[in-house]
Design brief:
Blueprint lengths: L5 H13 L11 H4 L7 H14 L4 H10 L12 H5 L2
Length: about 90
Amino acid sequence: MVAAGLPRQRADREERRDWWTSAACKEADPEMFFPVSAVGLSGADIARAKAVCASCRVRLPCLRFAVATRQVHGVWGGMTAEERRGL
């Protein structure tokens, strides 16, 4: 029966939508997560962003979101866009 799955589907959607409220990057400078390039001074931003992600308890939901929504820019779940392309 299809109706039996509805509460679970709704809960899954809520979980997918609410992960960001617990993200370690919530208070960080967004420019660190969306550098202009992957080299030079931007490389330091990427390293700092990945360090924030490494300590984040919602790193995997963040990464799943980025992959599912095909985010082409930024560090999400501890991975750059180039790294995510390999998934």
